[in-house]
Amino acid sequence: MSEQAQCTIPGIAIVPAIKRRGRVAALGLAEGEAIKAERLSVLELTHEGIPGDRHAGFLRPADVRVPWFKRGEAIQNERQISIVSMEELAVIAANLGIERVEPEWLGANLTVEGLPDFSFIPRGTRLFFPSGAVLAVTDQNAPCRIAGAEVERNLPGSDGLALRFAAAAKRLRGVVAYVDRPGIIAAGEEFSVRVPEQWVWRG
Amino acid sequence: MSEQAQCTIPGIAIVPAIKRRGRVAALGLAEGEAIKAERLSVLELTHEGIPGDRHAGFLRPADVRVPWFKRGEAIQNERQISIVSMEELAVIAANLGIERVEPEWLGANLTVEGLPDFSFIPRGTRLFFPSGAVLAVTDQNAPCRIAGAEVERNLPGSDGLALRFAAAAKRLRGVVAYVDRPGIIAAGEEFSVRVPEQWVWRG
């Protein structure tokens, strides 16, 4: 029994939960089939995401990001909301040698500032907004050719940029999230962040 | 620009994705308001979880585990399915000085074996079953007094065990998950496990 009891504390280092604050720099809605988002000053969230946004819904069709599913079949939607950071957009622009990357070119719903290495903010992190709205982070986002093409379309004379975009934006493309509690998010407001306990499992 | 470009590789160690295999040891359904689960040989999953199980639904009422919400308000349901491991149930039993803890006493829907330190399997891990069913892990589960009371109820003469349960089962209580793709799970079958990239963010 003593041998088994040892197993109650596996050799896994647990990093305690962390609290931080961030600020809403911009908000966007990608209507219908549009990639490019329209900039807004307020975003209204329901449990299914942003009404009218192309990523709204409890379910979504599987895409190339989840190659273990058949393309198009209905899976749980953990990509209702796409979030990027001002700081990382600046790094993507620098990597591409261009002046700026606007969040709406990437179809981002929420652009934050004040959170370093934002794309690495862990799964399960909650963002709490003054209205009571809560977002739950599900995964790091991956850059894709489609967003790169949109960046190119917005920059006359930037031919070929789409092909360089994925490499320039790798691990800088922010995160995706779902709406844990509905509410509104307003441009300029601050929000609090709760990062859950973290550890690495090696199995 | 060179200074910014450095930021593209933050000082975060990324552990690559891991593949493992496990086996289904037991299946259970907690009907209506019951805590105790009924043992089954096959579990049918929809996108809302297990039809008839008390944890089914796209949404769930907030409880004591999420103290930042008002008790009872509707939040996204990331606890459709509760999963424990045979190995950890044995450790809980040893910690309590009892012969065994049956998974149905804890209302577990799925009991697995073959995955060490199962309660630490990371958020975002996917379990792939032969039918095509896929579960996505959302969080480590936390022991509660209610489950402890159920264990006590099933063991005549174990008075007071409920109070010791939370400590004995801490970080051994398995994980919770949602149904990513519907399908069936059968007792005895093997499944594959995809643990996503892991890292620790210190912000």
Automatic annotation (TrEMBL), chains A, B:
It comes from Labrys miyagiensis. SUPFAM superfamilies: PK beta-barrel domain-like. It holds the Pfam family MOSC. This is Molybdenum cofactor sulfurase. Residues 35-194 form the MOSC domain. It comes from the Bacteria. InterPro entries: MoCF_Sase_C, MOSC_domain, Pyrv_Knase-like_insert_dom_sf. PROSITE patterns: MOSC.
